[in-house]
Design goal:
This protein is α+β, with helices and mostly antiparallel strands. Helix content is 54%, strand content 18%. The protein folds into 5 domains: 422 residues, Multidrug efflux transporter AcrB transmembrane fold, CATH 1.20.1640; 91 residues, Multidrug efflux transporter AcrB pore domain (Alpha-Beta Plaits, 2-Layer Sandwich); 169 residues, Multidrug efflux transporter AcrB TolC docking domain, DN and DC subdomains; 91 residues, 2-Layer Sandwich (Alpha-Beta Plaits); 86 residues, Alpha-Beta Plaits. The chain is built from 30 helices and 31 strands. A hairpin with a 5-residue loop joins strand 10 and strand 11. Helix 13 packs antiparallel against helix 14 and helix 28 packs antiparallel against helix 29. The chain is elongated. The model has no long low-confidence stretch (mean pLDDT 79). Pfam families: ACR_tran. This is Cation transporter. Keywords: Membrane, Transmembrane, Transmembrane helix.
């Protein structure tokens, strides 16, 4: 095939030009996003039921929904949390479930349940979790005058939201912190009593005046006309002039007995930017949109907003495109430095300027063609696919170096230019294809990991496969053609190796002879290093993600006091006032208004985001915050953590490491605090780490109203009437709504602000003699303790103890002994947590790696036509892993997702070197006369030594270019560099040992395996 193509250079060049043209078109159409569009198998159902305690939300809302949804197909788990005013259900499905169908099925079941749910509650919201739900940027709106807050809210909801939604690539625009207003009617009790007008008449008149009667038809001769009864209530003046009638029949306008005015709605949540109250708009992108194009459009729109609306201050925060730009910049850095170092190494080793130029052409051509295959495979440009592409770049350089070196060697042996190109490519074609297949054998099985990990590895594995396949095509087809074109007019002998390489070759021969002289001892010493890999794997720290030098902190607060949102906001402002460390802050206080919000939501909760100038100030700020809150608000629950970016939100797991779920035999019973203390004491006897108190064990103070039924009977008052008056006595009640041009304005009867007992005294009920009595005579109020949250799963209500960290030994103790304690106490016990998920993932990973090694073995056995020689390659892998882990340990790193990817890449390069070396030895060994044993051994040793000299240059060049291309990341800063640094250390450490292994371990192992054949 190579011979056929190399004799048709014009056709091949034109074909590549055509492919490059379509590749450029594909690049323009490829979506650019932060993360791949992964269908997360999770759905959240959120039920808002204002002014309702957790017990009623659990019994009336969440329990029926859980019972109905338990029959869903592929449902993995169901967890619910009932709080005051809000209930949340999280559904987790088995990975691979069609979430569009599951979403439809959930909606159908909720629709069927709608009749059984409380009538005053809105339909529960069903929210699908998706990676594209993460906002790409947040826009802060701060009114320059507090009096303009409602106007700015209307501006954000009716104008800015629509203008942003019109930007190409925007999917959802979400708002938090906006305020609305309503028409408040505040009756004057004294005037109503003086004019003998019952308060109930106000509500009746409003509802009657605002009633929609539909359409009437009137026939007039041959014609029929439709008459619509118009709504009489259109503005505030019409409401003020509504007629009331007293007992004497006199008409009194409403404004004479009540104050009618607009008032702001009751605020259940606030948003602060710094210390100023404002609104925040979060912007989400479409799956197919390019983030790099969308974000500049948003900035451009905001600049226009600043000109159009001078009464509002606009600020952009938490721009997630910075992370993507860091990934793209890393790729650019790898390309630039990879090309420079490849050029320098080729020049230093070969002393020929034409070869680096050939490399400079083939490298970008391979990369551009890869994007065409990205388009065909349906991939987007994101951090995961870019990392796969960057990983493949090192191997792309390797293939080009090996082919160029082999063609040059053939020319030195006296072949003609065309024969050198053909023979040089054909000779390394099989081992290079085999090396690519072995690399893919390591990568591709990772796709079959369950859950999100497998989905993320899919993009990476496919991108690596694409870049490797493209590099082979370019190396086998374009590179020899370029070599022919650049060297066709070159006359004379090929320039010898540079003096630098000749010096390296001399050093190599000295080391090789020394090791070969004591080959048994050398081989045993190298074999003894293999168990060190197992020891290092157990010794090194293990983490999910690398430590990233962040400057952002998220403070999550729950005051554990029945305070309103305004009080919570005042406490946050006081904290920010006293804080003497400069930081950009955002605060979401109380209930969030985001449509896509999936947190449980509570008025007494607050999330505060801090962006500090430096990591050191971040550490100081976190210590100050913790000390301040523990001193001023010791009862508050405090969580201080790194502010999650989009990358963390995907990889970080929800929930605690280990959880013990306690359940009573009666599903609706809960353990009290004394029972929890007793259980905690029992647990503390087993393990030293004290458990955290789960949500179900947290209690709060509440008011309990008791109605005196005997008094009611004596006065002839029904209990329903008392409950009706009580429900309207405190905050007032909704009477009707004015609808105009899509706008809905509530009309409420509002009570004057007063303490609770005064409000109960002012409210009255009518007895059997039509006399009015104060409501306080029949209702007694007392403080009680009640559960703040009620947690439940598919088997019913539970209360949990939780651990963030726990040793394997302690976990086994708890799992063995706690069930006996539960049985003695008449309780049921279940265990849960990310520990079990990690355990399952580890088992799957071990199984997948065993499959990878088996695939690697079978591919090599087919390549070498031997069942023994593949073991040489497999035994080199632990040595490379040992080198990677040692460098990670010395650099203060850990074994995490990124360093594991680096180890996989390093193993791919190591395998390539070992395969090429064994393949060359095999080719030389076939020429040996095997009839005489002593002569065979001598010739075998010479073949092994000659192979070392032949393959020294490509092995060193591939390793050195890869290491030097990655070195700039070590000295870079920023989140992109922090993510890539463990990967770089793993590759550098592995290749340092791996190069030594390929040069010395492989020939020694080959000798001890092959010398027995003679």
């Amino acid at each position: 095939m190579v011979k056929f193509l190399i004799n048709r250079p014009i056709a091949v060049f034109l074909s590549f030009i055509g492919i490059l043209f379509f590749s450029v078109l594909a690049i323009r159409q490829l979506p650019v996003s932060l993360l791949p569009n992964i269908e997360v198998p999770s759905v959240v159902i959120k039920a808002d039921y204002p002014n309702t305690p957790s017990r009623i939300i659990e019994n009336s809302v969440l329990r029926p929904i859980r019972s109905e949804l338990n029959s869903l197909n592929n449902l993995k788990s169901i967890e619910s949390t009932a709080g005051s005013e809000t209930g949340l259900i999280r559904l987790e499905f088995n990975y691979g479930t069609r979430m569009d169908l599951a979403y439809i099925e959930i909606n159908e079941k909720i629709d069927r349940l709608q009749e059984t749910l409380p009538r005053g509650m809105d339909r529960p919201r069903i929210i699908r979790i998706n990676t594209s739900d993460i906002p790409i940027i947040r826009l802060q709106l701060i009114p320059k005058s507090p009096s303009d807050f409602i106007e700015v809210s209307k501006l954000a909801e009716r104008v800015l939201k629509k203008r942003i939604e019109q930007l190409s690539g925007v999917s959802i625009v979400d708002i938090n912190g906006f305020r609305d207003e309503f028409i408040a009617i505040m009756p004057d009790r004294a005037k109503l009593q003086a004019l003998t007008i019952p308060e109930e008449q106000i509500g009746q008149v409003l509802q009657s005046a605002n009633q929609e009667l539909g359409q009437l038809s009137i026939k007039d001769g041959q014609y029929r006309y439709f008459v619509r009864m118009a709504n009489r209530l259109g503005n505030l003046e019409e409401i003020k002039n509504l007629p009331l009638i007293n007992s004497k029949g006199d008409i009194v306008p409403l404004h004479r007995v009540a104050t009618v005015a607009y008032q702001p709605e009751k605020v259940l949540g606030y948003h602060l930017f710094g210390k100023e109250e404002g609104l925040v708009i979060t912007i989400h992108k479409q799956n197919s949109a390019k983030m790099t194009e969308l974000v500049p459009l948003v900035y451009e729109a905001v600049e226009q907003f600043k000109k159009d609306y001078p009464k509002v201050s606009f600020h952009m925060t938490q721009d997630q495109s910075n992370l993507l730009n860091a990934g793209i910049n890393n790729l650019k850095t790898s390309l630039v430095y990879g090309g420079i170092f490849a050029f320098a190494v080729l020049f230093l080793f070969m002393g020929n300027v034409r070869m680096p130029i050939i490399m400079g052409i083939t490298l970008p051509v391979s990369l551009v063609i890869s994007f065409l295959l990205f388009r065909a495979a349906g991939l987007s440009i994101n951090i995961i696919s870019l990392s796969g592409l960057a990983l493949g770049l090192g191997m792309l350089i390797d293939n080009a170096i090996i082919v160029i070196d082999n063609i040059t060697r053939k020319r030195k042996e006296g072949h003609s230019l065309i024969d050198a190109c053909i023979t040089g490519v054909n000779e390394v074609m099989a081992p290079l294809i085999s090396s690519v297949l072995t690399t893919l054998a390591v990568f591709i099985p990772l796709v079959f990991l369950n859950g999100l990990s497998g989905a993320l590895f899919y993009d990476q594995a496919v991108s690596v496969a694409i870049i490797l396949g493209t590099s082979l095509m370019v190396a086998f087809v374009l590179l020899p053609l370029l070599y022919r074109m650049f060297f066709q007019h070159h006359k004379g002998t090929i320039k010898e190796d540079s003096f630098i390489f000749r010096g390296i070759l001399k050093v190599y021969k000295l080391i090789y002879r020394a090791l070969w002289r004591f080959r048994i001892v050398s081989f045993l010493l190298l074999l003894l290093l293999i168990p060190g890999c197992y020891w290092m794997v157990n010794f090194i720290d293990k983490k999910g993600l690398p430590e990233i030098e962040k400057t952002e902190t998220l403070l999550q607060l729950s005051w554990n006091e029945p305070i309103d949102a305004a009080t919570s906001m005042q406490r946050i402002k006081a904290l920010l006032e006293e804080m003497n460390i400069e930081a950009i802050t955002e605060s979401d206080i109380g209930l969030k208004q985001f449509i896509l919000s999936v947190d449980e939501g509570s008025i007494e909760q607050a999330d505060i985001y801090f962006n500090f100038p430096s990591a050191e100030e971040k550490r100081q700020g976190e210590l100050w915050l913790l000390n301040y809150l523990q001193t001023r608000h010791p009862q508050a629950s405090i969580t201080i953590q790194d502010a999650p970016n989009a990358f963390d939100q995907i990889f970080n797991k929800e929930g605690f490491y280990f959880t013990a779920k306690w359940k009573t035999l009666q599903n609706d019973e809960l353990l009290d605090h004394s029972a929890y203390t007793e259980l905690e004491n029992e647990v503390n006897k087993l393990v030293e780490t004290a458990p955290l108190q789960g949500k179900g064990f947290i209690y709060e103070d509440a008011l309990e109203a008791t109605i005196n039924s005997q008094k009611l009977s004596a006065y002839g008052i029904s209990e329903n009437e008392v409950k009706n008056v009580l429900s309207k006595a405190l905050d007032g009640y909704l009477v009707t709504e004015i609808r105009r041009f899509g706008e809905v304005i509530p009309v409420r009867v509002q009570r004057p602000k007063a303490d609770l007992r005064s409000q109960l005294s002012q409210a009255t009920v009518r007895g059997k003699m039509n006399q009015e009595y104060p409501l306080s005579e029949f209702v007694q109020l007392s403080f009680t303790s009640t559960e703040k949250n009620i947690t439940a799963d598919r088997t019913g209500v539970y209360q949990s103890m939780e651990w963030e960290e726990l040793s394997e030994q302690d976990i086994q103790k708890l799992m063995n002994q706690l069930p006996e304690k539960a049985a003695e106490s008449g309780l049921m016990l279940d265990f849960d947590g990310t520990y079990f998920e990690d355990l399952e993932n580890l088992r799957q990973l071990v199984f997948v790696l065993l499959i990878s090694v088996a695939l690697l073995y079978f591919i090599l056995a087919a390549q070498f036509e031997s069942l023994v020689q593949p073991m040489i390659v497999i035994f080199t892998l632990p040595l490379g892993i040992l080198g990677a882990l040692l460098i990670l340990q010395f650099s203060g790193g850990s074994l995490n997702v990124m360093s594991a990817i680096g180890i996989i890449v390093m193993l791919g390069i190591m395998v390539n070197d070992a395969i090429l070396k064994i393949d060359t030895i095999n080719r030389l060994v076939r020429q040996i006369d095997k009839t005489h044993r002593s002569a065979y051994k001598e010739q075998l040793a010479m073949a092994i030594a000659k192979t070392g000299e032949i393959r020294l240059k490509p092995i060193l060049m591939t390793s050195i270019t890869t290491i030097l291309a990655l070195l700039p990341v070590v000295f870079s800063s920023g989140i992109g560099a922090d993510l890539q640094r463990p990967l770089v250390f793993a590759v550098i450490g592995g290749l340092t040992i791996g190069t030594f292994t390929a040069l010395f371990f492989v020939p020694l192992a080959y000798w001890f395996i092959s010398k027995k054949k003679a």
